[in-house]
Amino acid sequence: MGLIVQKFGGSSVADAEKIFNVAGRVTDAYNAGNQVVVVVSAQGDTTDDLIEKANEINPNHSKREMDVLLSVGEQITISLLAMALEKLGYPVISLTGWQVAMHTDRNNMNARIKHIDTQRLQSELDQKKIVIVAGFQGINRYNDITTLGRGGSDTTAVALAAALNADLCEIYTDVDGVYTTDPRIVKNAKKLKDISYDEMLELASLGANVLHNRSVELAKKYNVALEVKSSFEKIEGTKVREVGNVEKMLVRGVTRDNNVARISVVGINDTPGKAYMLFNLMAKYNINVDVILQSIGREGTKDISFTVPRDHVEEALQILNEQIENLEAKEIKHADNVSKVSIVGAGMASNPGVAAKMFEALYEAQINIHMIATSEIKVSVLIDEKNAEKAVAAIHDKFFNN
Ligand code: ASP
Ligand code: MG
């Protein structure tokens, strides 16, 4: 017995039958004697459809009005789920972001939660009600509606779990847990029983697409016990928590990210301050730089290559070309058709054998590496995009099928 926050994603509440399926999950937890707070997303493709509708009317809409529109999706789901629970005879109440008092900053369409007043929630729970909360939405200090960024309902759920000091936050979705790699690419990907917050954060930001990044950050910060599980199958999911060496498996996952491009600044004068000038420019324009490689060029020059998100490459090239004389560089080159493939797991830096094993897998698959980056928790390589799936499969095979 305790307090459980359950979150159900858009595909889990897509139609009436699925809403009743969710109601079953909720009442199971309630009947077991728990207090239950439920967070839901908009049904199916509702959010995408709303975005399309907005663009039809005015592609230059303000973010404020967009949030008024987008928050509607979740409001539909909370009422429908509440009606389903009423029909089943349970005490229930639905609450929107402002009714909960989900206070955020003023950053429309990508707002951050600042604090939650739990009074209303607490009093509804004290009356033994199941409380259903609209995910993804809040209000700013002027009582205007805000949303938390795509996929933000996960973050609503974790924030509520933290504010209410819940015993568990269950994230129900259409996959049944977190896998060692994308099961759509690699058939024998394995489901992880446990994963640490840091590893999950890496997997989430490297494109694993299971949890909203900020929800994992929040869970780590407030030590919220998370579990990712299937809405449809009653089987164990993946626990995200501060784990020791539970599975004694160093590498926990293999990911790939196609949203990368490589830029090379060729023939820069080999004098102090050039790298500073270059990356300071990128920072000034808020362009995220990831893998960096400096190599020795000819006759007192050097080359610096680095990666940026592919959707920022045009902007980066324009900035660099404008500054090419100040940088004293000869040429700016770029490549779009690259992918970043990474292995993730705690304790990489102290185990050089892990990187060697990854490179061996790539060598055996005859895949050329353009750049390498390592950190305490991951090893990433930049390779040609056309080899990305083959690389993921080869690396996964090396680490998980021996
Ligand atoms: N409905 C929102 C979206 O589609 C939020 C969410 O699903 O978490 O991004
Ligand atoms: Mg989601």
What does this structure look like?
This protein is α/β, with parallel strands linked by helices and 402 residues long. The protein contains 13 helices and 20 strands. It has an eight-stranded mixed β-sheet with strand order 3-6-2-1-9-11-12-10, sandwiched between helices. α1 crosses α3, α6 (153-163) runs parallel beside α8 and α12 packs across α13 (388-400). It has helices at residues 16-31, 46-57, 63-87, 97-100, 119-126, 153-163, 197-208, 213-222, 274-284, 313-322, 324-327, 352-364, 388-400, and strands at 3-8, 35-40, 92-95, 102-104, 113-116, 130-134, 137-139, 145-147, 168-173, 194-195, 226-230, 238-240, 253-257, 261-269, 292-296, 301-308, 331-335, 338-344, 371-374, 378-384. The structure holds aspartic acid and magnesium ion. Magnesium ion (MG) binds at residues 9, 151, 154. Residues 9, 151, 154 line the site of magnesium ion.
What is the helical fraction, as a range of percent?
A: 25-40%
Q: Looking at the structure, what is the overall shape?
A: globular
Strand content: 15-25%
Structural class by helix and strand composition: alpha/beta
Heterogens: aspartic acid, magnesium ion
| Tally of contiguous helical segments | 13
Low-confidence stretches: none
- The count of DSSP E runs of length 2 or more, i.e. the number of strands, is 20
**Describe the biggest sheet?**
8 strands, mixed
Mean pLDDT: 93
Major sheet: arrangement of strands: 3-6-2-1-9-11-12-10
- Looking at the chains present, what oligomeric state does this protein adopt? single chain
> How much is the radius of gyration in Å?
24 Å
Determine the N-to-C terminus distance.
Answer: 42 Å
